[in-house]
Amino acid sequence: MAAARAAVADGSRVAPLDAGPVEYAEAGSGPALLSIHGAGGGFDQGLAIAAQLVGEGVRVVAPSRFGYLRTPVPAAGDPRAQVDAQADAHAALLDHLGIDRAIVLGLSAGARSAVAFAVRHPQRVAALILAVPALHAPESPVAVDPTGGSRLAFAVVKAGGDFFWWALRGLAPSLVVRFVGVPPDVLAAADGAERARIAATIAAVAPLSARAEGIRIDSAYVPHDMPVERIAAPTLVITARDDHFNTLPAASRAAAGIRGARLMVFESGGHLLVGRTGEARAATRGFLAAHGLLEEDRTGDASGSSGRT
Fold first, then answer.
1. Is residue 157, in this structure, part of any structural domain at all?
2. In this structure, what DSSP letter does residue 228 have?
3. What residues does the AB hydrolase-1 domain cover (predicted)?
């Protein structure tokens, strides 16, 4: 527990914005990349997903969303309105840092405020990347795996109990893997480096108590139609067919609604894209290079990806 708290005690700052304090961290140099974490995350997850899905050559700005770590929850309100408020807070953070435009990366539940940001502040978005997006799909909604074990894990997470999360990870690791949207057999077939990455991702949810309020906000949100047709930025949407959170329908719907968007679907990998981050990163970098936002990689490209576009 102490190690988990120490890991998030350093490496971030708090911006005193008009809407309230927002924690953030920065890394790298180059075009600005606003990296918006998913449920159970924070600035630390934002830095990690930027490294995994984009890599070098960008200036990463990774905020902690409302209720996560040192970013407090604003006045209580409708969860949908909070998504818009979160998008406006993203814009205010960029203002604070003197950044006019940014590439925007939204992971899972973070895709909601990424989309809202692209709709409400279109001139600020150089490109939009939505990874396993927890958006609206009325015919087949995004949902936690319905098994009893996943419901138990979800109850532990919503309660924000550090000890119970630690115990659950130790006593029922396959349950936790399924809870984070990854089929256990996919993880079992992965190489050692990928298994270590997933273990680190799960461990990084601690301290759960410092993220619990944000998790409750994310879980209270009911996805609804957002005016994605108003998004003008080049857009790449990435998901996996076997994501246990069922983000494929939402990803497909978003890509169909955003003019010119590209959809990349992996046949396997689950919610954490197990074994697919190299391909996803190559595709992301190729996408950004095609729009003049990164220099084209000379060591690899996305042409060998097994994703469907």
1. no
2. G
3. 31-273
